[in-house]
Amino acid sequence: MDIKLLTINQLQQAYGSGELSVEAVISAYLDSITHQDSKIKAYLEVLGDKAVKQAEALDSKLRKGEKPGKLFGVPVAIKDNLCLQGSKTTAASKILENYIAPYTATTVQRLLNAGAVVLGKTNMDEFAMGSSCENSAFQKTKNPWDLKRVPGGSSGGSAAAVASQEALVALGSDTGGSIRQPASFCGQVGLKPTYGRVSRYGLIAMASSLDQIGPIARNVADAFKVYQTIAGPDPNDTTTVKALTFDEAALQKGFKNLKIGILKDAYVEGMDEGVVEKIQEAKKLMQENSAEVIEIEVPRAKLSLAIYYIIVTSEVSSNLARYDGIRYGMGKTFNESENFLDYTTRIRAEGLGEEAQRRVLLGAYTLSKGYADRYYHKALALQKSIAKDFEAAFKKVDVVFGPTAPTVAFKLGEKFGDPLTMYLSDIFTVPANIANLPAISLPIGFAHKMPVGGQFVGPSFREDLIFQAAAAYENISGISNLVSAKI
């Protein structure tokens, strides 16, 4: 038995029968990290001793006959913008290099309460700003399928950890595609829930009106179990709401009576032909398996990327204003010749990376006097229009299907010096964030020997529909539980 290939259900069955102990499973995953992560660099911090102690405590509970939680003994990786009390939480930024979280994020606490074991904190683009995991202040994560390629971003470390069997599941955050795009690049399943479905308490904010936390997993059922655990209202986050709940039966319904929309203008110039081919094959496969596929239009969706970078940079400039080098992280001393403004300017220049500085400056510009109405307020108005366009589309179809990313994972350094080209990596994922919709990416095949992801987008708070569609496709395609080639 290869422990690291077991699903959550299989793992818990093995625990229940006594075939496996939590300590043995956690040790197996920690061994993977020890032997592989020097090449992949998925983790910024590995909590080995803490994880083993937690595993021992869970085994003790099982021996005493205590009822295990939904994620009992599941090895989890946590993106490093999620707080874990007593551990470093850096958001992959030098300005937070020495920040120790004084509390635990709601999502992480819910995993712990359900019996999950946190293996460590994963690498990411600094403050979640990036699409390749190359903007980290500490290291560049590699794609386990090809170490010369990026894992995607900003949750690249989380996706790479799951793909390389260094975690069974992981948490990431998604502001414009930061869960789904790396899941696509690494051949995994990645979910962005509806905004407000999952608490953001304990998430280091990038763009507060768009950020959302979700799972990365090897299959749809595992992603559902993590989602089911972390979703729900939280008094610490007033944007969370009580919404429709559903059980795992939604994953068994198949495509019957499901109407799937395909955007007429779903493809963009320069899109990889291999990705286009896999999307067409997926469409045909769904039609052959009882799905009704309908062409639809969402006229203003093509404006999403431009709107996104106005809203995001505006909120970034506000959210990152708190990092002055005094209250968080670096804690350097004043030079005798410096006043407070000089000190803060120096610390932010030293502590924030190039992409973070770029977005702060762009956001300050779009919010400045004379420009806020021209850019920011207009972007907010168009955001509402895009949401209405999707509402109209969902009167005709249940879910919308299309590519997750326009290409497979690109090579390290290929787009790093060209931010505009890098931003286009999110062209298919951003609309769901702008319209506050749930979306899930899953593997649909390979092009150029690299995974290709397809994406289902659903109406607000109808995660049941996108899980139904994703599980149905996973079942008929036979593409499930993808793992990376041997490192």
Produce a short descriptive summary.
Its EC number is 6.3.5.7. The chain is an alpha/beta fold.
SSE topology sketch:
Elements lengths: L7 H10 L4 H19 L2 E4 L1 H16 L11 E5 L26 H8 L3 E6 L33 H8 L5 E5 L6 H7 L2 E4 L20 E5 L2 H11 L28 E5 L9 H15 L4 E5 L7 H16 L20 H12 L2 H13 L5 H22 L5 E5 L15 H5 L6 H5 L4 E9 L2 E8 L5 H15 L10
Parallel strand pairs: 2-3, 2-4, 7-8, 7-9
Antiparallel strand pairs: 1-3, 4-6, 5-6, 5-10, 9-11, 10-11
Overall spatial form: globular
Please mark out the parts with pLDDT under 50 across 5 or more consecutive residues, or reply none. none
Number of helices: 15
Please describe the biggest sheet, giving its number of strands, its sense, and whether it closes into a barrel. Answer: 11 strands, mixed
> What's the number of structural domains?
1
Could you give the distance between the termini? 20 Å
Q: Give a count of the beta strands, DSSP E runs of length 2 or more.
A: 11
CATH superfamily placement: Amidase signature (AS) domain
Secondary-structure arrangement, i.e. CATH architecture:
Alpha-Beta Complex
Structural class: alpha/beta
Note the run of SSEs as H and E: HHEHEHEHEHEEHEHEHHHHEHHEEH
Strand order in space, largest sheet: 1-3-2-4-6-5-10-11-9-7-8
CATH class: Alpha Beta
Helix percent reads 25-40%
Catalytic activity: L-glutamyl-tRNA(Gln) + L-glutamine + ATP + H2O = L-glutaminyl-tRNA(Gln) + L-glutamate + ADP + phosphate + H(+)
Protein name: Glutamyl-tRNA(Gln) amidotransferase subunit A
GO biological process, one term: translation
Organism: Candidatus Kerfeldbacteria bacterium CG08_land_8_20_14_0_20_43_14
